[in-house]
Amino acid sequence: MGMFDRLVLFSDVHGTVLKDGKPVAGAELIQKVVWSDDENEIPPQRTVTDTTGAFAFPAITRKAGLLRLIPAQPTMLQTILIRYQGVEYIAWQHGKNSYDANTELDGRPITLVCELTRQPDYEGKHYGICKAD
Fold it and tell me: Where in the numbering of this chain does the DUF6795 domain appear (predicted)?
């Protein structure tokens, strides 16, 4: 990345929400990121699944400013929650330590399949009911 490129705090996310293997329409998803280098809270992003259970979030980025010149280990805590029929599910929790895009899954884009009947568990370095597709 160049010195003036944007810092990627949370890469693009695409996914599908299922219940018993069937698409869930109308589930609310909330995406949050807590960044160690930001004094201000980053507002959560929200979306709702369509009739096929699909959802998407654009990348959360910030201007690089002087952070590209200062050697430091970035730390971002990423979370995606799903709310459906009065129940909240932990879909994704991940600690990101790079400002580059798609480092969450070692260079692969984040494409998730979230099964509401699954118990949250670890898959690689992330935790939740969503599995990387």
Answer: 13-118
